[in-house]
Amino acid sequence: MRVVRETELKFLKRELDYLAAAEIITPEKAEQIESLYEVRDKPSFTRTLLYVGSILIGAGILSFIASNWAEMAKPIKFLLIVGIFIACQFAGYKLEGNYPKTSKSFYYLGVIVFGAGIFLVEQMFHIGGSTQDAFLWWAIGIIPLAWVLRDKWILLAAAFFSLFHLMDATYLQGRVIPIWIVVLIVALYFLNGKIAFSRGTAFVNGVVQLVFLVTVINFFLLRYGSFDEPFIQGLILLVIGIVLVLRKGKIHDIYVYLGYITHGCAALLLSFNETWPAQVEWLYIPFSLLYLLFLLYLIKRGSLFSIIILCVMIFRFYLDISFEFLPKSFVFIIGGVLLLGFGFYFEKQRRKGEGKHA
Prior knowledge:
Strand content: under 5%
Helix content: over 70%
Number of strands: 2
Radius of gyration: 26 Å
Structural class: mainly alpha
Shape: globular
Order of helices and strands: EHHEHHHHHHHHHHHHH
Strand order of the largest sheet: 1-2
Distance between the termini: 25 Å
């Protein structure tokens, strides 16, 4: 199913009715085309109340358990956690038919209880492991639920928990390659397409892939090179970001935006002379000039996002130079003028593009 706004679906229906009336397509074909689309869920007051209520109930239950944790016997603790989780899933299942919104709120409450139960059970049985390991098991545990319920929000939560898991210093410092995260990345990508493509899940999963790549780079740098050479990570991420941007039209737009952010952040890192080895630290100047020319090329092709990156790069060099040679008052005044100019130019280009640029 293609998820669209309600106004877009109404426009499509009018056009299909017109084409059917003009006998360009058959009424059956018009209905078949219309059935491929569904309206994007709108935030509603009822849904908001239910979801906030489930979060508050979850926080209250966990607060009660935590405050009386020391007085409870281990079997009671474990059975209490499992019992609450099963009760949430059972209530959600029973309410699915008549009260789907309330049903989802119970499922979400179960997700919260499941995650908190992992932390509490670890504490109860003195199971070793970092906080990031708990997030890994949390993500693994709720992915099947997201699949069964076809719920994009639970899948998004699993993507975030996978990202939190990768934030472990052991991985980021290159001591271990978390190869098992590849299974989660593939599962998130596959289910995101099966359930209903979510730009948020796709973006977070893309960040997970980039962080995993960084852990692999750091692993080999730690063993075969110098870990204190951030220019290597910067150059690799720069290339990946540029490749994503140049594949515009062949991949989802959200991956293109991720490419802009990736090569923009990598270029900002590489624009500092401290990033480069001492022997060739002067390379930051020609690199920055070449990168600015590349941004101008993208802007010529109609990229509004590149204008933002160009503004950031120019402002970065402006601050670097002006703080040394100008009084602080002039630094702020000229900086403000530059930002106003950037804003005016961005709005002007946006009006010209009217959504055609990316």
